[in-house]
Amino acid sequence: MLFLVLIYHHDAKMAAATAAEHEALGRDYGAFNKFLAESGALRGTATWPAGVATIRSQDGEALVTEGPYSEAKDKVAGFFLIEVEDMDAAIGFAKRVPGAQYGGVEIRPVQV
């Protein structure tokens, strides 16, 4: 089964993190990304803000802006797409996301 795993970061928590905590998070993501690549389950990934565009409707026209558009405190920081046997396996992957301490991780089954 395919699962989309969305990683959320809370603006205030990220802003409150020290430089050392940001460096540690970067190292932890390096190790996590290596784990994903070596797992054989990874099917795709993306991180913010590389290549993000948002489309909204305004006065019947499509308005395209660069970057994410969200008024929420938690913002999507990235995602990965995995193919594993079931939700329990997907949860196992999601529990390893380093950024969960700065927001949350959401798992969605993908229908194809």
Question: What does this molecule look like?
Answer:
Helices cover 31% and strands 40% of the residues. With 112 residues, it is α+β, with helices and mostly antiparallel strands. It has a single domain (2-110), classed as 2-Layer Sandwich (Alpha-Beta Plaits), CATH 3.30.70. Strands 2-5-1-6 form a four-stranded antiparallel sheet. Strands 3-4 form a two-stranded antiparallel sheet. Strand 3 and strand 4 (61-66) form a beta hairpin. The longest helix has 21 residues, at 19-39. The mean pLDDT is 88.
Low-confidence stretches: none
How many strands, what sense, and barrel or not for the largest sheet? 4 strands, antiparallel
**What's the overall average pLDDT, rounded?**
88
Kindly give the count of domains: 1
- Could you tell me the radius of gyration in angstroms? 16 Å
CATH fold description: Alpha-Beta Plaits
- Topology pattern, helix = H, strand = E: EHHEEEEHE
Shape: globular
